[in-house]
Amino acid sequence: MKIMMLGQKRSGKSATGNTLLRKQVFDTCPNEQCQVEVEEVSDQLVTVIDTPGWWKETSRCTEDMDKEIVRGLSLSPPGVHAVLLVVPLDLRFRQAQLAALEDHMNLFDEGIWKHTMVLFTYGDNLEDKSVEEHIEREHSALRWLVDKCENRYYTINNMKKADMTQVTELFEKVEEMVAGNSGQLFCPDMKDVHLRIDEKFKKRELKHVLKKSLEQEYRRRELELMISFKEKLLELQADIRESVASQRPRTLIDKNKIKAKGIGQKKKDEKEEKVDAKINREIEKLDKDILTSTILLRNSKEFLLPDLKGESSAPSNFDKVLNWISSLKIGTNTESQLTLNFSETSGYASIYDFNKDMDMPK
């Protein structure tokens, strides 16, 4: 029986491997490399491949990490009978965990799901609750995962290493799944797997470039608006000062007239002085903001574009992504919001929100 374990960091994969093989062969500290061990368990040879865990935040995962995770399959050349997706019961399984999981499962072909089973660790956390109750009460992301694995799951408690019953039951479930697959091993084309990794990280780089380009355009327009607003304030300030100057007494008669107007005129003058001072403060603030925006805009123009040349000549959907990017036009809608126009003829456009990540086309 050949088994590969996949899962998030600190999910209990290594401890589970030790439980399955009934030996302390895997280091339970976070590992950065794949490890394979073979032992005889209950009169059969069992191969267990432990792989590095992935981060919950997909942005922290690197190309080298992904390559090391998929390298686990090369440690069992004919392939594996089962892929155990290790999910700890001591942590919540939400959309972020599911996104990270799918991000790595997608590196393999769709056929991996026929060979996959969810293995819940930290079974002692259930206490008096059944795993079925836990699945039902948890976030819909966990129910989706269990459904995707065609309701194949098992719970293990690594605190009870001497309890062989749980290991025997797990192996029986694996054998049942293997029988359903007519004994076929999961062995994807590793060349295709590495192409998917390459495409994944090129898309990530391209997404970063496009986001930077949009941010640059946004800053440029923001700078234009601030400069325009400053000019309007300067014009307003000049008008106020001209008005104040025109009302100043030039002759003795004018002075006598102003004295006659009394306190009302004085209050008006004080109010105009306050408005002038306030405009001055706004102009000073704008000067600082304009300087900051100018620096940001200048820096955004200096970032390096990634090298998008692939080493392989194999056809890829990435070329379609590049063509799609080249057709994008940055514009504004009637409400002066920054938009992406997907083509000059279709009329379809998208308002860009800088607080959210962009979705790339599939």
UniProtKB/TrEMBL annotation:
PROSITE patterns, sorted: G_AIG1
Nucleotide-binding keyword on record: yes
InterPro entries: G_AIG1 (IPR006703), GIMA/IAN/Toc (IPR045058), P-loop_NTPase (IPR027417)
Swiss-Prot/TrEMBL keywords: GTP-binding, Nucleotide-binding
UniProt GO molecular function: GTP binding
Domain AIG1-type G: 1-195
Pfam families per UniProt: AIG1
Keyword Membrane: no
Family assignment from sequence similarity: Belongs to the TRAFAC class TrmE-Era-EngA-EngB-Septin-like GTPase superfamily. AIG1/Toc34/Toc159-like paraseptin GTPase family. IAN subfamily.
Protein name as it appears in the record: AIG1-type G domain-containing protein
